[in-house]
Write a structure and sequence with these properties.
By secondary structure, the protein is an alpha/beta fold. It has a single domain, classed as P-loop containing nucleotide triphosphate hydrolases (Rossmann fold). Helices cover 47% and strands 12% of the residues. The protein is built from 9 helices and 5 strands, in the order E-H-E-H-H-H-E-H-E-H-H-H-E-H. Strands 2-3-1-4-5 form a 5-stranded parallel sheet, with helices on both faces. Helix 2 crosses helix 4 and helix 3 packs across helix 4. The longest helix is centred in the C-terminal third of the chain and has 18 residues. The radius of gyration is 16 Å and the shape is globular. Bound molecules: shikimate-3-phosphate.
Amino acid sequence: MSTATLDMPTKPKTRTDQTLAGRTVPAGRAALDRLVFTGFMGSGKTSVGSLVADRLGWRFLDLDHEIELRHNRTVPQIFAEDGEAHFRHLESATLASLLGQRHVVLALGGGAPEELGNRLLLEQTPHTAVVYLAAPFATLLDRCHQQAIDPAATARPNLADLTAAERRFHLRRTHYERIAAHTIDTSSLTIEQIADAVLDLLPTGAQ
Ligand code: S3P
Protein backbone atom coordinates (compact mmCIF):
# COMPACT_ATOMS: atom_id res chain seq x y z
CA MET A 1 0.00 0.00 0.00
CA SER A 2 2.86 2.33 0.73
CA THR A 3 3.77 2.53 -2.95
CA ALA A 4 0.24 3.37 -4.09
CA THR A 5 -0.39 6.85 -5.32
CA LEU A 6 -3.25 8.94 -4.12
CA ASP A 7 -3.90 9.34 -7.77
CA MET A 8 -5.88 12.55 -7.91
CA PRO A 9 -6.27 15.69 -10.03
CA THR A 10 -3.33 18.03 -9.94
CA LYS A 11 -3.61 20.78 -7.37
CA PRO A 12 -0.86 22.81 -5.76
CA LYS A 13 0.06 21.49 -2.36
CA THR A 14 -0.31 23.92 0.49
CA ARG A 15 2.65 23.96 2.82
CA THR A 16 3.84 26.69 5.08
CA ASP A 17 7.11 27.32 6.86
CA GLN A 18 5.55 26.44 10.17
CA THR A 19 6.85 23.26 11.74
CA LEU A 20 4.93 21.02 14.04
CA ALA A 21 7.08 22.37 16.83
CA GLY A 22 5.77 25.83 16.09
CA ARG A 23 2.33 25.33 17.49
CA THR A 24 1.72 22.37 19.71
CA VAL A 25 5.02 21.01 20.88
CA PRO A 26 7.96 22.75 22.48
CA ALA A 27 10.94 23.10 20.15
CA GLY A 28 13.93 20.98 20.91
CA ARG A 29 15.22 17.49 20.83
CA ALA A 30 12.69 14.68 21.13
CA ALA A 31 9.94 17.13 22.05
CA LEU A 32 7.35 15.09 20.21
CA ASP A 33 6.02 11.81 21.59
CA ARG A 34 2.87 11.28 19.53
CA LEU A 35 2.04 12.11 15.96
CA VAL A 36 -1.65 11.90 15.13
CA PHE A 37 -3.24 11.86 11.66
CA THR A 38 -6.70 13.23 11.14
CA GLY A 39 -8.90 13.73 8.10
CA PHE A 40 -12.01 12.39 6.43
CA MET A 41 -12.44 8.79 5.27
CA GLY A 42 -10.08 8.14 2.36
CA SER A 43 -7.60 10.83 3.33
CA GLY A 44 -4.69 8.37 3.70
CA LYS A 45 -4.35 8.45 7.49
CA THR A 46 -3.56 4.75 7.78
CA SER A 47 -1.26 4.44 4.74
CA VAL A 48 0.68 7.61 5.49
CA GLY A 49 0.69 6.98 9.23
CA SER A 50 2.18 3.51 8.95
CA LEU A 51 4.84 4.73 6.52
CA VAL A 52 5.80 7.65 8.78
CA ALA A 53 5.92 5.29 11.78
CA ASP A 54 8.28 2.97 9.86
CA ARG A 55 10.55 5.86 8.97
CA LEU A 56 10.62 7.12 12.58
CA GLY A 57 11.01 3.66 14.07
CA TRP A 58 7.86 4.38 16.10
CA ARG A 59 4.86 2.15 16.64
CA PHE A 60 1.87 2.63 14.34
CA LEU A 61 -1.62 2.49 15.83
CA ASP A 62 -4.87 2.71 13.92
CA LEU A 63 -7.73 3.77 16.19
CA ASP A 64 -10.39 1.72 14.36
CA HIS A 65 -8.18 -1.37 14.41
CA GLU A 66 -7.50 -0.95 18.13
CA ILE A 67 -11.26 -0.69 18.80
CA GLU A 68 -11.81 -3.87 16.79
CA LEU A 69 -9.07 -5.73 18.68
CA ARG A 70 -10.34 -4.62 22.08
CA HIS A 71 -13.97 -5.46 21.38
CA ASN A 72 -13.50 -8.41 19.07
CA ARG A 73 -15.88 -7.00 16.44
CA THR A 74 -15.39 -5.06 13.23
CA VAL A 75 -16.37 -1.39 13.06
CA PRO A 76 -19.31 -2.18 10.72
CA GLN A 77 -20.48 -4.85 13.18
CA ILE A 78 -20.39 -2.38 16.07
CA PHE A 79 -22.36 0.16 14.02
CA ALA A 80 -24.91 -2.47 12.94
CA GLU A 81 -25.37 -4.12 16.34
CA ASP A 82 -25.09 -1.19 18.76
CA GLY A 83 -25.32 1.99 16.68
CA GLU A 84 -22.98 4.89 16.02
CA ALA A 85 -23.37 6.45 19.49
CA HIS A 86 -21.98 3.31 21.09
CA PHE A 87 -19.14 3.20 18.57
CA ARG A 88 -18.28 6.82 19.49
CA HIS A 89 -18.19 5.88 23.14
CA LEU A 90 -15.74 3.02 22.48
CA GLU A 91 -13.74 5.31 20.18
CA SER A 92 -13.30 7.98 22.87
CA ALA A 93 -12.28 5.46 25.52
CA THR A 94 -9.77 3.82 23.17
CA LEU A 95 -8.34 7.16 22.09
CA ALA A 96 -7.80 8.21 25.71
CA SER A 97 -5.88 5.05 26.47
CA LEU A 98 -3.74 5.18 23.31
CA LEU A 99 -2.70 8.75 24.01
CA GLY A 100 -0.89 7.44 27.08
CA GLN A 101 1.74 5.78 24.88
CA ARG A 102 5.00 7.35 23.73
CA HIS A 103 6.67 7.25 20.33
CA VAL A 104 3.53 6.33 18.49
CA VAL A 105 1.97 7.42 15.23
CA LEU A 106 -1.81 7.24 15.52
CA ALA A 107 -4.37 7.30 12.70
CA LEU A 108 -7.75 8.52 13.95
CA GLY A 109 -11.06 7.45 12.44
CA GLY A 110 -12.57 10.20 10.30
CA GLY A 111 -15.32 10.93 12.83
CA ALA A 112 -13.24 11.04 16.02
CA PRO A 113 -12.79 14.86 15.96
CA GLU A 114 -16.58 15.35 15.89
CA GLU A 115 -16.58 14.66 19.63
CA LEU A 116 -15.65 17.70 21.70
CA GLY A 117 -14.07 15.50 24.37
CA ASN A 118 -11.75 13.94 21.80
CA ARG A 119 -10.73 17.34 20.46
CA LEU A 120 -9.95 18.63 23.94
CA LEU A 121 -8.00 15.50 24.76
CA LEU A 122 -5.90 15.84 21.62
CA GLU A 123 -5.27 19.51 22.26
CA GLN A 124 -4.36 19.00 25.90
CA THR A 125 -2.15 15.92 25.66
CA PRO A 126 1.42 17.23 25.87
CA HIS A 127 4.03 16.47 23.21
CA THR A 128 1.32 15.51 20.75
CA ALA A 129 0.96 16.95 17.25
CA VAL A 130 -1.97 16.46 14.90
CA VAL A 131 -1.59 16.55 11.11
CA TYR A 132 -4.67 17.00 8.92
CA LEU A 133 -4.56 15.22 5.55
CA ALA A 134 -6.94 17.26 3.42
CA ALA A 135 -8.54 16.61 0.03
CA PRO A 136 -11.81 17.53 -1.72
CA PHE A 137 -14.86 15.36 -1.02
CA ALA A 138 -14.96 13.88 -4.56
CA THR A 139 -11.31 12.86 -4.28
CA LEU A 140 -11.87 11.18 -0.94
CA LEU A 141 -14.89 9.35 -2.26
CA ASP A 142 -12.89 8.06 -5.23
CA ARG A 143 -10.18 6.77 -2.94
CA CYS A 144 -12.70 5.04 -0.69
CA HIS A 145 -14.26 3.36 -3.71
CA GLN A 146 -10.83 2.22 -4.93
CA GLN A 147 -10.15 0.70 -1.51
CA ALA A 148 -13.50 -1.08 -1.51
CA ILE A 149 -12.32 -3.94 -3.73
CA ASP A 150 -12.56 -6.01 -0.58
CA PRO A 151 -15.67 -4.48 0.99
CA ALA A 152 -15.48 -6.57 4.15
CA ALA A 153 -12.05 -5.15 4.93
CA THR A 154 -12.85 -1.54 4.19
CA ALA A 155 -16.58 -1.15 4.76
CA ARG A 156 -17.48 2.29 6.05
CA PRO A 157 -21.00 2.57 7.44
CA ASN A 158 -20.96 6.35 7.20
CA LEU A 159 -20.46 6.23 3.44
CA ALA A 160 -23.74 4.39 2.86
CA ASP A 161 -25.63 7.69 2.53
CA LEU A 162 -23.51 9.95 0.32
CA THR A 163 -25.54 13.10 0.96
CA ALA A 164 -25.13 12.66 4.70
CA ALA A 165 -21.43 11.85 4.19
CA GLU A 166 -20.87 15.09 2.28
CA ARG A 167 -22.64 17.05 5.02
CA ARG A 168 -20.37 15.44 7.61
CA PHE A 169 -17.34 16.28 5.47
CA HIS A 170 -18.24 19.99 5.52
CA LEU A 171 -19.03 19.97 9.24
CA ARG A 172 -15.84 18.18 10.17
CA ARG A 173 -13.42 20.28 8.16
CA THR A 174 -13.39 23.02 10.76
CA HIS A 175 -12.69 20.51 13.50
CA TYR A 176 -9.85 18.91 11.55
CA GLU A 177 -8.31 22.30 10.88
CA ARG A 178 -8.64 23.48 14.47
CA ILE A 179 -6.99 20.47 16.10
CA ALA A 180 -4.20 20.23 13.54
CA ALA A 181 -0.80 21.84 13.88
CA HIS A 182 -0.49 21.48 10.14
CA THR A 183 -2.67 20.78 7.14
CA ILE A 184 -1.32 19.02 4.06
CA ASP A 185 -3.29 19.19 0.83
CA THR A 186 -2.87 15.61 -0.35
CA SER A 187 -4.79 15.97 -3.62
CA SER A 188 -1.85 15.57 -5.97
CA LEU A 189 0.63 13.78 -3.72
CA THR A 190 1.63 10.13 -3.45
CA ILE A 191 1.68 8.41 -0.08
CA GLU A 192 5.49 8.72 -0.07
CA GLN A 193 5.36 12.44 -0.87
CA ILE A 194 2.90 13.04 1.95
CA ALA A 195 5.10 11.06 4.35
CA ASP A 196 8.13 13.13 3.26
CA ALA A 197 6.18 16.35 3.83
CA VAL A 198 5.24 15.20 7.32
CA LEU A 199 8.80 14.18 8.19
CA ASP A 200 10.02 17.60 7.03
CA LEU A 201 7.81 19.17 9.66
CA LEU A 202 9.10 17.20 12.61
CA PRO A 203 11.23 18.95 15.21
CA THR A 204 14.92 18.00 15.16
CA GLY A 205 15.49 14.96 17.29
CA ALA A 206 12.14 13.31 16.73
CA GLN A 207 13.48 11.50 13.65
C1 S3P B 1 -15.91 6.92 10.27
C2 S3P B 1 -14.67 6.68 9.75
C3 S3P B 1 -14.00 5.36 9.82
C4 S3P B 1 -14.49 4.59 11.05
C5 S3P B 1 -15.98 4.53 11.06
C6 S3P B 1 -16.64 5.90 11.07
C7 S3P B 1 -16.52 8.25 10.08
O1 S3P B 1 -12.60 5.52 9.88
O2 S3P B 1 -14.03 5.18 12.22
O3 S3P B 1 -16.40 3.79 9.93
O4 S3P B 1 -17.56 8.53 10.68
O5 S3P B 1 -15.94 9.04 9.31
P1 S3P B 1 -11.70 5.94 8.58
O6 S3P B 1 -11.70 7.44 8.50
O7 S3P B 1 -10.35 5.39 8.92
O8 S3P B 1 -12.31 5.29 7.40
